[in-house]
Amino acid sequence: MFEVFDQRQYNWQPHLGHLPNVRSRETILALAQMANNAYSPDEKGTDWRDMDENWKNGSYGYSDNGVRVQVFGNDEKNLFVIAVKGTSAGVWPGPTNGNDKLNDNLLFSCCCAHPFPAWQRVCDCFTGQRNECNKDCLRDSVLDKNLYYRTAMDVYYDVIESYPDSTIWFTGHSLGGGIASLLSLTFGHPAVTFQTPGDRVAAERLHLPPKGRPEWTYPIWQFGNTADPIFEGVCSGPSSVCWLGGFAIETRCHIGRTCVWDTVGYNGWRVDIQAHRISVVIDRILNQTESEYPMPECRPETDCEDCSLWKYVDGIVNHTQGYHLQ
Question: Choosing from 88, 141, 174, 181, which is the catalytic residue?
Answer without folding.
Answer: 174
